[in-house]
Design goal:
heterodimer, A: Four Helix Bundle (Hemerythrin (Met), subunit A), 2 domains, 6 helices, B: mainly alpha, 4 helices, 65% helix
Chain lengths: 219, 133
């Protein structure tokens, strides 16, 4: 047995041992957590469920990617330069989206609107390139009804494209609402959730360009 | 219980996912974080595209390399863009993420295992038809 002073409090800065009454919000004695934490956490749960939805599309794509039914395989129809430009657009838009969050934190309206407009423009370039790819495939007779591989491809990549479209509509709403109502607490919560949504879309795109395009066009 | 809280973190509570706790010069530090994330993510993306198109890596090893690069880039996005940290204020966010990753893994691995197993153990449909004749 070591000799410890009776009543001495061990060093526990994060209160992991719960030796002290936890006075931080959301931890019992501290009262409820702030609304910002609760809203963002709820939206985080939604995003994770959305990622699980995407994982089902990825699973069906992985199963069906070889079932070309005599139609073209990924290597014959994927244009990696196009995908590279799309990826660059989404990555840069994630960065400008982060700038908008910082601008909102600093209550700087012009910077906020500029950052979101650049984000919108980059998202629009991404969507245009994706739609052009889809239109080219359909025009060549390689639409979703051609083979199970193409059905899974259009379902997965199209689902991501629909999410980007929804995100861009949300982005425009954020611009209008902050323009009309300013940086109220509820607006800042919506801006935070929008940021989470846009960054999550970029994470899903990383999986798309790796699994669908690079693995599909590769060896 | 008369202890007073002397540590900064003890009374701060949880942080919202996506929120960054900036100490010191806020905006400049924030821009630096996003810039660092952008550079790392762009580097990993470029590496993915290069590895897929070149002979840098042994041919059968390319898929594994691509998956590893993708997982690394997702980690970069989570840390630098979504500000998911390992600190105690982010415990709830990390636990939810871990559960999501578990479900994603079960769904992906389960589907691929079951479907490939079915492909190997089921008789092709045309043979079934000819047996019934």
């Amino acid at each position: 047995m070591t000799t410890t002073e009776i009543g001495a409090v061990p060093y526990d800065p994060y209160n992991l041992g719960r030796g002290q009454p936890d006075l931080s919000p959301g931890h019992g004695a501290g009262g409820p957590a702030s609304k910002r934490v609760i809203v963002a956490y709820g939206f985080w749960i939604f995003l994770l469920s959305d990622i699980i939805l995407f994982s089902a599309f990825f699973a069906s794509y992985a199963v069906l990617s070889g079932q070309t039914a005599g139609g073209p395989s990924g290597r014959e129809i994927f244009d990696l330069r196009n995908v590279g430009v799309e990826t660059a657009c989404l990555l840069l838009s994630s960065f400008t989206c982060g700038m908008s969050a910082l601008a909102a934190g600093a209550r700087n309206k012009p910077a906020f609107h500029a950052a979101l407009l650049v984000t919108f423009a980059l998202g629009a370039v991404f969507l245009t390139l994706e739609l052009r790819e889809f239109a080219g495939l359909v025009a060549a007779g390689n639409g979703p009804q051609r083979s199970a591989f193409l059905s899974a491809f259009f379902a997965l990549v199209g689902c991501h494209g629909l999410h980007v479209t929804a995100g861009m509509l949300w982005l425009l709403t954020m611009i209008a609402q902050v323009f009309a109502k300013g940086f109220r607490a509820d607006m800042l919560r919506r801006v935070l959730c929008f940021n989470l949504f846009w960054h999550a879309l970029d994470i899903i795109w990383v999986a798309v360009f790796t699994v669908v395009y690079l693995l599909g066009a590769g060896p | 219980m008369t202890e007073t809280f002397t540590d900064d973190h003890a009374g701060r509570g949880d942080s919202a996912p996506g929120d960054e706790r900036l100490d010191g010069s806020g905006v400049a530090q924030g821009v630096l974080g996003y810039l660092l994330g952008l550079i790392l993510a762009a580097g990993l993306t470029a590496a993915s595209f290069y590895v897929a198109a070149s002979h840098l890596i042994w041919h059968p090893g390319i898929p594994a390399a691509l998956v590893a690069l993708a997982v690394a880039q997702m980690g970069v996005h989570l840390v630098f863009f979504l500000h998911i940290t390992t600190g105690p204020e982010s415990t709830n966010n990390v636990l939810a993420l871990a559960f999501g990753v578990l479900i994603v893994f079960l769904l992906l691995a389960g589907t691929m295992f079951i479907m490939s197993s079915l492909t190997h153990t089921t008789m092709p449909l045309d043979q079934v038809m000819s047996m019934q004749r």
